Amino acid sequence: MLKPVCAALIALTLICSGRADAQSAADADTIAAAKELVTAMRLTDRFTPLMTAMVQAVKPAVLAGRPEMERNLDAVMAVLIEGMNARIDEFVDQMAATPANCER
Known about the structure:
mainly alpha
């Protein structure tokens, strides 16, 4: 049980870590506009269902040949989703501050 929990925590750390220089790369007006867009699109409301759907999509592959792990996987995923939801504002800040690479 400890190894899957450690692996999940490492994955969460990698997913939720942001670039320290991203905020300095975007100006305050751009960041405010990006946050406003995220709010208007209600993206944060879609985060939990999206994460749940992603977990359900990979669940058969993770449990292949190991059905006894389902309860452990469900417990770890619940903790991960709860942790991500607790940091949703931070996630939005990072998304808004990250410059888009679509300008040419």
